[in-house]
Every structure is written in structure tokens, then in C-alpha cells.
Design brief:
The complex is a heterodimer of chains A (176) and B (579). Chain A has 176 residues and is of the alpha+beta class. Chain A contains six helices and nine strands. In chain A, strands 5, 6, 7, 8 and 9 form a five-stranded antiparallel sheet that branches. Chain A is elongated, with a radius of gyration of 19 Å. The two termini of chain A are 37 Å apart. In chain B, the strands form four sheets. A six-stranded parallel sheet of chain B has the order 3-2-4-5-7-6, with helices on both faces. Helices cover 39% and strands 17% of the residues of chain B. The chains are: A alpha+beta (176), B alpha/beta (579). The interface between A and B is medium-sized, with 20 and 19 residues.
């Protein structure tokens, strides 16, 4: 059965690694729904967060093949229940639309979004949350015309008390 | 061998580092890694390296000039496979680099340690579509274990050290280093340090004692255990450990195409070859055993047939160095991760001594059936035309299991793998995973250089020979005394066999109109003989083996012989066909 999985890969910060990782998905014909790369809580170690919709069998094999890459220290996969996840979305609407309708202001207030910038021409609104939440706000705002929209990759941390990698680093005797 | 840098230090006067060019550093680094032979082809963006090589050639490193970069890559593979050392290939940017790719892909699938060094356009030209610029890092990414672009001379020694470490450690594989021309020219203070670890890379997982216990319990209660030997045994140099395990437990063992020669052919527990054209017993019994012990093999689809109907009745124990191989194709009951050199003795210690005579008897019965139906006709034919099998049998009679067998790909590969006999490990050089036609001739060159004291016999078909026939020039120039056995059936035989069996004998583009191969060899001053009649075969083989230099023996074999047994694609191993 296909479901949403969050793959987390801890790696060195080296040129071309993203390409190496995406090749693994391409070969197995798994589409990447979202991707985020950033520094992890461990100095010098980068973290890939990759969201895919696939089967448990495929995600397990893909994760092992990611971990096999020389520059990858460790890779894990989790279901959405096992992680705390968040996305950020940024919406641009015409200020004129905002002025003409009280509704937009209510939308912003009720959805927990915030306004980043207002100019005479446009207003930029930001919202963080699950994809479904940022999508809902988009659908509502779009009734008044969203001129630009972008959503970040999912960032996620596990419900484990520590970064999963620290165990591994301890095991192999490296100081984080 | 004293290396140049070491000599300097020994003299006491010289400083620890010396100022040299990137190109010279490449050569010195290779010498530090113990490289004695490299295979390559010069061109614009690798010229500084060839210039540096000029100084060290023959004294420290022998360079074999291939006739095509693909040949250089396959030769490096052949060298690595017989010697256990890292094979090194050198090529220029652009087409030189892309021509290496087939060999690199072959080496990845067959876990062969290679270090390929390619020249690249100068760093200011990177990404500008410069002359002979190609993104070889991008192209080779899916087919290398690791690769890196080096743009500064001072990064060269560390890159080479890391490349050798990664190529040969753990599950070996090909590595590519792309070095820009300006980095080859630039001067820097050279110092070489061998690489002994990479932070993010664990070559071999630690063997878990609990898994050994679990596996031993299963093995000790097994009634019909069956061991599958892969190339992991050879790569891990665990042949003695394998024998100790098998001999204590009395478990029959079959081998994959690449696991061939890990166990001597005549060993009483050796029941033969697995897979599509493997032996009857090993295929049938894969689906009848109660415990399957896979040792350093990866359940390739050519071994399993229809994987949904493969060994479902058995508990599967998988000894494997690469965690990504575990449960990839076949679900395991117990996975023992780690180097088999380490895990096998631990397992041997825990298992009880046993004999599985009745079970072995079942394999013998299968072997008898196969002999009557297939083998007899292959190696002792009664028909007029010569068969591939009888040629291999005759060679066996002369070489007595001591030769290295190199094959190309196709019918001749399967027949040679089935019938060639081996006493020693690392005696087989064949393209397994990628099935690269044209592999045989250049790989034989490398094999001979990697095992100069052994007889190297390359069994090649008329199709495959013509894919890399230009390497006869390399054999000629470098006087590489390989014995080429051309089994000529004037067809692309394996494809023709499939056309006969599955495509209503519609021989689409498989008949070959061939040149005079002996005349081609003669043009390269390579001696040869063509055999068309059985009565001349033995004497011709003697002449070939007694000849000092390279030799081409062409044997005109039956045009439309098929290789059996056969597990047709998509069928279960139980559905193996004997005719």
C-alpha cells in the first residue's frame, strides 16, 4: 500500500550528492514530493528530508541504497505519525484586493498566517503548517487572486528524544 | 619496490615534501598505491599525465596502450579480477571518458575494484561546452561507487588515496577521478598519505554474534540445506573459510557465474552452477531445500528466475557485506552482515558436524539425468559438427584446471562456465551483471598481465570478438601471450537461440557474414589456426598451448546448437528445461 514516507539522510556536505540521491529515486521510478536540505543539529553534517508516496518495501530499499552512498552517514525512513513536520508557504496578493475585502483580513487572522510586507501594489502573506493547511489558505485566497505562491519542502524532526544519528556516531566512535 | 618519494626520505637530505606538478603527483600517487600496470589511451586533456608517465614508464609503471578506451577499462577489470589488486585505467576527457563508461558500469555490477582517471578541460572552461568537454562526473555517477572532480593540484594526492581506499574496501567497485588540465599543470608541495578511513563510509558492517547463533540453530536442524557461493567469497579471500564451513557441515554448494572457481570444480560438495544455464540439480533443488545459505551473492534475476516462485519453502540465511543487498530480491530469515572472511569462521564454529548423504544423493541423481540429456551430447558429441562443449573438454584435458578462463558474453560464455574446470580461485573473468559483449578480448589482456605465470585462455564468440577486435593490436604491440579460442558459429548465438525458442525461428539480424579471422590475426603477427574437423582439434589445442606468444585458435562449431539446461525468462527455477 502506498503512503507518505519521510526519508531522512545524514550526509557530508559535498558537491553532487543531491544528484547521487535523486538517481536512486529515478531508477526505481519513485517521485519526490518534496525535498529539503539543511544543516543538522550536528556540526558539519547535513540533513536531507525527502517526502515520497510509495510502498514500505520500496521506501526501505531506497533508504538502504541512499545509505550505501559513500558520503551518506546514515539514512532513515518514517511515516507521518512518527515525525513532527512543517511547511512554509508564501502568498502574494494585490493590496487592492486586501483593501476591498474584509474577508482576506479574516482569513489571515483565522488561519494563523501573518503578513510579511505591504506595499501599495502588493501584500505578502506567510503561513506555516501542514501542506493541507497551506493549501486550504491558498484556495481561499485565490478567490481574490493570488499573483505569486510558493511552498517550501517539508522539514521534519522525529519524535525520538535525540537526533537518530547521534547513536550511530557513538557506535562508530566519532565525536559529533 | 622502493617508491621514489620513499627513496628521497631514506637519503636523509631531501625535504618531506617536494614541489612537483599535478601530473607527476598522479604518477607518484599511483606508485605509492603499488600500481604496476595501467591501461589507457592518451588525448588532449590527459597529455600532461602522459608526459609525466614518460619519465616513469617501464622503471616503475607499465602502461598498456589499448586501441579503444573501452578496451582499457575491460583490461583493467581483467587485471583486477585475477590479481585482487585495483585495476587502473587512464583516458582523456570527452570521448575518451565516455568510452570508459561501459567498462565502469560492468565493474560496478560485478564489484570489480577500478580507479579510472580522466583528464578534464581546464577549470576556467568547465561548463562552457569546451572542446572535448563532457560532464563525466554526471555521466558516471550512476555507475561508480564514488567519483570526484579535482580542479586543484594540491587535492590530487588525497583524491587518489581516497579513490583506492573506496575502490578496494568493503564491496569493491569502480571509482572515477576527473582531473582538470590546469590541475595537472600546476605545481605544489607533494606529500602522500594513504587513506585508511572515510567518516561517512563503513566498508563492512560488524558481524553480530546473535545472528551467527540464529543462523547456526537453523543450519543445525536443517534436513536439506543448500549453500550458494557468490563472488563475495573470492573478493573476501574466504575460500579456505568456505571449505571449512562446507566440509564440517557436509552441505552441498552451488556457485553463481561469478562465484565460479571459489570452490575447486572437483570438490565433492561442489554440485555445480546456478542460474538460467546452470546445472539441473542446483536449480531444481533451490526450490526443494529447507535452508538456503547464500554466501556473498546477490540473488540476481538470472539466478532466481521468477523471484515470486523462488525458494519460498526455504529459510534463507544471507551472508552479505552490502546491507542494501539484504532483502533486495529475496526475503531473508537471518541476515549475517559483514565480510564473509570474518563471519564464515564464526558460523563454522557454531554449526555441528554433519553429513547429508541422502540429500547429496539427490543432487547426484539430477547430475546423472543432466549428463544423459545434455552434457553427454555437449562434450562427447556423436554428430558430425564440432560443439563448443567438446572444445572446452579438450582444453580441460590439457590445462588440468590450472588455467585462467576469460569469456565473452553469450553461448560460449555459458558453455565455458559450465564445463571449464578449476583447481584455483580467481580463475574466472567474465562479464556477469552487465553481460557486455566485447569484454573478453581486452579482459584477457588484463588477466594475463595480472597473472603472468598462468595460462590465460579467452573463450570468445564470433560476434563478441568483433566488438573489440582492435585489441589484437594491443596484444601485438605489448606481446601479451593470451590464447584466444574463437568459437565461431556464424551467428549471434544466444540471441539466435532465443529467436528459435521464443520468436518462431525468425532470425532477425543474427546471422553473421564473418571475415577471415586467422588472416586478421596474421595481420597483427598473431599466429593462429582454424579447425573445422574433429580429427584436428586436439593437435590444434596442443599447438596453441605450446606456442610461446599470443595465439588464435578458431573452431568452426555447429551453427544452431543451443545451450541447455535453460530456465526461460519469467519461469521458475523448477521449470528448468533440459531440451
Amino acid at each position: 500500500m502506498e503512503q507518505e514516507y519521510f526519508i531522512t539522510a545524514f550526509s557530508e556536505n559535498s558537491i553532487g550528492l543531491l544528484n547521487r540521491i535523486t538517481i536512486i529515486f529515478t531508477r526505481r521510478q519513485v517521485n519526490i514530493e518534496s525535498l529539503n536540505v539543511s544543516q543538522s543539529s550536528i556540526h558539519g553534517i547535513h540533513k536531507f528530508t525527502i517526502v515520497v508516496n510509495t510502498t514500505r518495501e520500496k521506501v526501505e530499499k531506497v533508504t538502504k541504497q541512499i545509505e550505501k552512498l559513500v558520503e551518506v552517514l546514515k539514512a532513515f525512513y518514517h511515516t507521518s505519525e512518527e515525525v513532527i513536520q512543517q511547511e512554509i508557504a508564501v502568498y502574494k496578493v494585490k493590496t487592492e484586493a486586501l483593501m476591498n475585502s474584509k474577508e482576506i483580513e479574516n482569513l489571515v487572522r483565522n488561519s494563523g498566517a501573518r503578513i510579511l510586507e505591504i506595499t501599495p501594489d502588493y501584500t505578502v502573506i506567510e503561513k506555516t503548517g501542514y501542506k493541507s493547511e497551506t493549501q486550504e489558505l491558498f484556495d481561499k485566497l485565490d478567490q481574490y487572486g493570488v499573483t505569486q505562491f510558493t511552498r517550501s519542502g517539508t522539514v521534519a524532526v522525529t519524535k525520538n528524544p535525540k537526533e537518530l544519528l547521534t547513536e550511530y556516531l557513538k557506535e562508530v566512535g566519532w565525536k559529533a | 619496490m622502493d617508491t621514489l618519494t620513499k627513496k628521497k626520505e631514506d637519503e636523509g637530505q631531501a625535504p618531506k615534501t617536494k614541489r612537483i606538478t599535478g601530473s607527476e603527483a598522479i604518477i607518484l600517487s599511483l606508485i605509492e598505491e603499488g600500481v604496476e600496470v595501467i591501461f589507457g589511451y592518451p588525448g588532449g586533456n590527459i597529455m600532461p599525465v602522459y608526459d609525466a608517465l614518460y619519465h616513469y614508464q617501464d622503471k616503475h609503471i607499465r602502461h598498456i596502450l589499448a586501441r579503444h578506451e573501452q578496451g582499457a577499462a575491460h583490461a583493467a577489470q581483467g587485471y583486477a579480477r585475477v590479481s585482487g589488486k585495483v585495476g587502473v585505467a587512464l583516458a582523456t576527457s570527452g570521448p575518451g571518458a565516455t568510452n570508459l563508461i561501459t567498462g565502469i558500469a560492468d565493474a560496478l555490477l560485478d564489484s570489480t575494484p577500478l580507479v579510472c582517471i580522466t583528464g578534464q578541460v581546464g577549470s576556467p572552461l568547465l561548463g562552457t561546452d569546451a572542446f572535448q568537454e563532457t560532464d563525466v562526473i554526471g555521466i558516471s555517477m550512476p555507475v561508480t561507487k564514488w567519483n570526484v572532480l579535482v580542479t586543484k593540484a594540491e587535492d590530487i594526492p588525497a583524491a587518489i588515496a581516497k579513490a583506492f581506499y573506496i575502490a578496494k574496501s568493503g564491496r569493491p567497485g569502480p571509482v572515477l577521478i576527473d582531473i582538470t588540465k590546469d590541475a595537472q599543470f600546476a605545481q605544489f608541495d607533494y606529500e602522500y598519505k594513504k587513506c585508511t578511513s572515510v567518516r561517512s563510509y563503513i566498508p563492512a558492517p560488524k558481524v553480530e554474534a546473535s545472528k551467527i547463533e540464529e543462523a547456526a540453530t537453523i543450519i543445525n536442524s536443517a534436513q536439506k540445506p543448500f549453500a550458494l557461493i557468490g563472488q563475495g567469497v573470492i573478493l573476501g579471500a574466504a575460500e579456505a573459510e568456505l571449505r571449512a564451513f562446507l566440509e564440517k557441515t557436509g552441505i552441498p554448494a552451488a556457485w553463481t557465474l561469478l562465484g565460479n572457481s571459489a570452490l575447486p570444480t572437483d570438490h565433492p560438495l561442489n554440485v555445480g552452477m546456478l542460474g538460467m544455464h546452470g546445472n539441473y540439480g542446483p536449480n531444481i533443488k533451490s526450490n526443494e531445500c529447507d535452508v538456503l545459505i547464500a554466501i556473498g551473492m546477490r540473488f540476481d534475476d538470472r539466478v532466481t528466475g521468477d523471484v515470486k516462485r523462488y525458494a519460498k519453502q526455504a529459510k534463507v540465511i544471507h551472508l552479505e557485506i552490502d546491507p542494501a543487498e539484504v532483502d533486495k530480491n529475496v526475503k531473508t530469515t537471518v541476515a549475517i552482515l559483514g565480510d564473509v572472511k570474518e563471519s564464515l569462521p564464526l558460523l563454522t564454529e557454531k554449526v555441528s558436524a554433519n553429513k547429508h548423504e541422502a540429500w547429496m544423493e539427490e543432487f547426484k541423481k539430477c547430475a546423472e539425468i543432466e549428463f544423459e540429456k545434455v552434457i553427454k551430447h555437449d562434450i562427447f558429441p556423436e554428430k558430425e559438427g564440432l560443439t563448443m562443449g567438446e572444445v572446452i573438454r579438450k582444453i580441460n584435458e590439457k590445462t588440468k584446471g590450472e588455467a585462467v578462463m576469460v569469456t565473452d558474453v553469450g553461448q560460449q560464455q555459458m558453455i565455458a562456465s559450465r564445463y571449464f574446470k578449476f583447481n584455483k580461485t580467481r580463475s574466472v573473468v567474465t562479464s556477469g551483471g552487465l553481460g557486455t559483449m566485447g569484454f573478453g578480448l581486452p579482459a584477457a589482456i588484463g588477466a594475463k598481465l595480472g597473472a603472468p605465470d598462468r595460462e590465460v585462455i579467452a573463450v570468445i564468440g564470433d560476434g563478441g570478438l568483433q566488438m573489440t577486435i582492435q585489441e589484437l593490436g594491443t596484444i601485438f604491440q605489448d606481446e601479451v601471450p593470451v590464447k584466444i579460442v574463437l568459437l565461431n558459429n556464424t551467428f549471434l548465438g544466444m540471441v539466435r537461440q532465443w529467436q528459435q525458442l521464443f520468436f518462431d525461428k525468425r532470425y532477425s539480424s543474427t546471422p553473421l557474414i564473418n571475415p577471415d579471422f586467422i588472416a586478421i590475426a596474421k595481420a597483427y603477427c598473431i599466429a593462429g589456426e582454424k579447425v573445422t574437423d574433429r580429427s584436428n582439434l586436439e593437435a590444434a589445442i596442443d599447438t596453441m598451448l605450446n606456442h610461446k606468444g599470443p595465439y588464435l585458435l578458431e573452431v568452426k562449431v555447429e551453427k544452431e546448437d543451443n545451450v541447455f539446461p535453460m530456465v526461460p525468462a519469467g519461469c521458475s527455477v523448477s521449470e528448468i528445461r533440459l531440451e
